Amino acid sequence: MLNRRQVVATLLRNREGLVVVSGLGSSTYDVAAAGDNDKNFYLWGAMGGAAMLGLGIAIAQPRVPVLVVTGDGEMLMGMGSFSTMALQNPPNLTIAVLDNGLFGETGGQTTHTAGVTDLAKVAQGCGIPEVHEIKIDSDVAAFAGKVHDPGKGLTVAIFKISQDLPPRVMTSRSGPVLVDRTRRALGLPMS
Ligand SMILES: Cc1ncc(C[n+]2csc(CCOP(=O)(O)OP(=O)(O)O)c2C)c(N)n1
Ligand SMILES: [Mg+2]
Questions:
Q1: Strand order in the sheet with 130-134
Q2: Ligand 1 centroid, distance to 78 Cα (angstroms)
Q3: Tell me, what's the pLDDT at 37?
Q4: Does the structure show a pLDDT above 90 at 191?
Q5: In sequence order, what DSSP letters do the residues of 9-30 get, joined into one string?
Q6: How many whole angstroms separate alpha carbon 111 and alpha carbon 141?
Q7: Which stretch of DSSP H or E encloses residue 63?
Q8: Structure confidence by residue, pLDDT tens digits, 66-82
Q9: In CATH terms, is domain 4-185 a member of 1.10.287.130?
Q10: Whose CA is nearest to atom 4 of ligand 1?
C-alpha cells in the first residue's frame, strides 16, 4: 500500500506550470503538506466537484497542465464526471484518486471501492483514454513526470493508498483568496 503524502509529494516534485485542484479534506492536506503554492486550488467543500473544476480549468487554459488530487469518496460522489471528461477529452488534465477505501476525513466509514466498485474500470468504461491503477512506489515515480506535460492526453490514475491519516496541514479556507491568487498566478484579471 502506498503512503498518501509520498504519492502527492512525488507527483508535485519539480512543478512549474502545474495547477493543482485538491478535493475536500485529506487530499487538500496532502497537497498543502507538499508546499503551499499560488497554483494550488484547495476545495474545502463541493464534495464530488473536484474533477469538474479541474476540467473547467483545463478547457479554459489548454496550455496549462492541470492535476486534480482527490479521494475515492469524493470521486465516487462525482462519478459521472468520468463520462463528461471523456467526452471533452482535454489532453492537459490528469485525475489522481487517492483510494483508501474510506471516507477518511469523516471518521473512516467504508466506501464502495473497498467492496464492490473498481474506479479504474469505471473510468475505462466511461471512455477515459488512459487509466492506471498504481500500487507501488516505482510506478508512482514513473507516472509523476507525465502530469507536467499539457500534451500528454487525458489520464486517470487510481493510487491504492494505506488507511493512515497523517496530521492535518491547514491552508487558507477563503474562497475569494484562493480564487484570486490562482487567477493572478495564471496572469488573469481578478474575479
Ligand atoms: C455533500 C457532502 N457529503 C458529505 C460530506 C462530508 N464529507 C467531507 S469529507 C468526506 C469524506 C471524503 O472521503 P474521501 O474523498 O475518500 O477522502 P479521504 O479522507 O478518505 O482521503 C465526507 C463524507 C460533505 N462535505 N459534503
Ligand atoms: Mg478515501
A1: 40-42, 19-22, 66-71, 93-99, 155-160, 130-134
A2: 12
A3: 98
A4: no
A5: HHHHTT-SS-EEEE-TTHHHHH
A6: 27
A7: none
A8: 999 999 999 999 999 99
A9: no
A10: 47
C-alpha cell at 159: 493510487
Q: How far apart are CA 154 and CA 158, in angstroms?
A: 14
**pLDDT-based confidence at residue 25 (cuts at 50, 70, 90):** confident
| Contact (Cβ atoms closer than 8 angstroms) between residue 137 and residue 6 | yes
Looking at residue 32, what is its pLDDT? 98
The rounded distance, in Å, linking the Cα atoms of 110 and 129 is: 29
Q: Break the chain into its structural domains and give their ranges.
A: 4-185
User: Which letter does DSSP use for residue 2 in this model?
Assistant: B
48 CA closest ligand 1 atom index: 1
Q: Which residue has the higher pLDDT, 112 or 189?
A: 112
Residues 6+ apart with CB under 8 A from 92: 58, 61, 62, 63, 64, 65, 66, 150, 151, 152
Tell the residue number behind the cell numbers 508512482, with chain if given: 140
* CA of 24, closest atom in ligand 1: 9
> Integer distance in angstroms from the first to the last C-alpha of the chain?
41
Give tens-digit pLDDT for 99-121. Answer: 999 999 999 999 999 989 999 99
